[in-house]
Design a protein that fits this description.
Order of helices and strands: HEEHHHHHHHHHHH
Helix content: over 70%
Mean pLDDT: 83
Oligomer: single chain
Number of domains: 2
Structural class: mainly alpha
Number of helices: 12
Distance between the termini: 60 Å
CATH class of the largest domain: Mainly Alpha
CATH architecture of the largest domain: Orthogonal Bundle
Low-confidence stretches: 258-280
CATH superfamily of the largest domain: MetI-like
Strand content: under 5%
Length: 280
């Protein structure tokens, strides 16, 4: 019995080590003021990489802020636009959903730079080229399909039944949305928002084609790969920060049992939720 349990634990440990090894190497590279081959560890540690990366002349802070604004805006707009489409697909109200799935996946099959090059021709005429607004619109092309695909899984007969029960107890449309629908789909909504943010945050080809000279974190990172690996490592850690934070948060929630539905207490009847919120 002990061996049977030890093998899965060992396998998970090996997978975790393989995943964390590149990240650990990146941290070492960022802290290494001097690291000459064939030495296994750096000869000298320091903060030169951080100082150079965030110097006024580097433009890294502006690039990080631009990437953050664009990713947040694109994610928020994608969630609003995806909601009705995801609901229609998830509730099975379409005769041929396979066609819709294929159409949603088509933007993901085109190389981002090719998509950006095509959009740039129109953005120049519309005055959106080299602007944050243009970047938000361009990032919606890959972000929106991901958000729709994930969010569609949140809607189904269970959510509809809860909403109908709440309506029977006198809940209006806004109250049903706030007290029933949003809590019911919140976990999937959070996943869709996180993935949408990460897809936008990591866009290089679209940002290069549409943004022109607008500083964005992926565009600032790439030139340093050859010119200064230490600065590139620092920016890469910033680039990875949202994904790492998401993984840590998921592990914390899993450890507390927050993602295990069988441990959760039974949800109150929709009517009770409505009644507790007050109403006529």
């Amino acid at each position: 019995m002990g061996e049977g349990r030890a093998r899965p634990v060992l396998f998970v440990a090996l997978v975790a080590a393989a995943a964390l090894a590149p990240l650990a190497t990146l941290v070492l590279r960022a802290a290494a003021d001097e690291w000459r081959a064939p030495a296994v560890l750096p000869q000298r540690y320091g903060t030169r990489g951080v100082e150079e990366a965030f110097a006024d002349a580097s433009g890294a802070m502006e690039a990080i802020l631009n990437s953050l604004v664009v990713a947040l805006a694109a994610t928020a707009i994608a969630l609003v636009l995806a909601w009705p489409a995801a609901r229609t697909i998830g509730e099975g109200r379409m005769r041929r959903p396979a066609v819709v799935w294929v159409l949603l996946g088509l933007p993901l099959l085109v190389p981002p730079f090719a998509t950006g090059s095509g959009l740039t021709e129109w953005f120049i005429r519309l005055g959106l080229a080299d602007t944050l607004t243009g970047l938000v619109v361009a990032h919606l092309v890959p972000v929106l399909p991901y958000v729709v695909l994930i969010l569609a899984g949140a809607f189904g007969p269970e959510v509809r039944d809860l909403e109908e029960a709440a309506a029977v107890h006198g809940a209006g449309r806004v109250r049903r949305l706030a007290l029933v629908t949003l809590p019911a789909v919140a976990p999937v909504l959070a996943v869709a928002a996180l993935l949408g943010f990460l897809v936008s945050w990591s866009q290089y080809g679209l940002s290069l084609a549409v943004g022109g000279g607008t500083p964005m974190l992926p565009l600032e990172l790439v030139p340093f790969l050859a010119a200064d690996p230490q600065v590139a490592a620092v920016l890469a850690l910033v680039f990875l920060a949202p994904a790492v934070a998401a993984v840590v948060l998921a592990l914390v929630l899993a450890g507390r049992g927050g993602v295990r539905s069988h441990d959760a207490p039974a949800a109150p009847a929709p009517g009770a939720a409505v009644a507790s919120g007050g109403g006529t």
